[in-house]
Specification:
- By secondary structure, this protein is mostly helical.
- It has a single domain, classed as Arp2/3 complex 21 kDa subunit ARPC3, CATH 1.10.1760.20.
- The chain is built from six helices and two strands.
- The protein has a two-stranded antiparallel ribbon with strand order 1-2.
- A hairpin with an 8-residue loop joins strand 1 and strand 2.
- It is globular, with a radius of gyration of 16 Å.
- The two termini are 20 Å apart.
């Protein structure tokens, strides 16, 4: 019983750290895009999101990404976006983690990040269409989303190769480790 409690505590600590890292990298390392009329933003919050999802799996990826970036939306004054971000970015983290739980190869990482990019573009295109009631205006956000995921991928792919050798292994239910 005590071992199970320790695993739960570790999981909660890693989830909290993941949420905090995603939030901090979104808040403190960002650039507003002058070309997007609806206030596009490029940030580095996807870097810890992807690293956490690749190293620790779908559930930590979903929690860290969804909650960390939704919290940014609430604190940063993007309230209307928070529910969309929770779902879209949570799904990105879940997908990256799910792909990488099954295969820990460089090509799996690339595939996972491409899947996350697709989710981001389709998800935020749909969210903007709903929020603004216009299905043409969201096209302006696609290049920014591509740059954001491309930049995160360029950082994550070389870094995660080194980090996976040192990642703390977990053995809670549903984890690959």
């Amino acid at each position: 019983m005590e071992q199970h409690s320790l695993k739960q505590t570790k999981y909660l600590v890693y989830a909290a750290l993941g949420i905090a890292l995603v939030f901090a990298c979104t808040v403190f390392v960002n650039v507003r895009l002058p070309i997007a009329a609806n206030g596009g933003l490029i940030h580095l919050g996807n870097v810890p999101l992807f690293i956490i999802a690749i190293l620790y799996g779908r559930w930590l990826g979903a929690l860290a990404g969804g909650l960390g970036m939704a919290l940014f939306d609430v604190v940063g004054g993007w309230f209307l976006w928070a529910p969309f971000t929770l779902v879209i970015v949570g799904l990105m983290g879940y997908t990256v983690g799910a792909i990488c739980e099954k295969n820990q190869s460089f090509m799996a990482y690339v595939l996972a990040l491409l899947a996350a990019c697709t989710i981001k573009i389709v998800g935020y295109y749909g969210a903007e269409g709903i929020i603004y009631g216009n299905w043409i205006a969201p096209l302006v956000s696609v290049p920014g989303n591509l740059v954001q995921i491309g930049l995160a991928s360029a950082i994550v792919l070389p870094v995660v190769q080194k980090l996976k050798k040192h990642a703390v292994a977990f053995s809670w239910a549903g984890s690959r480790r």
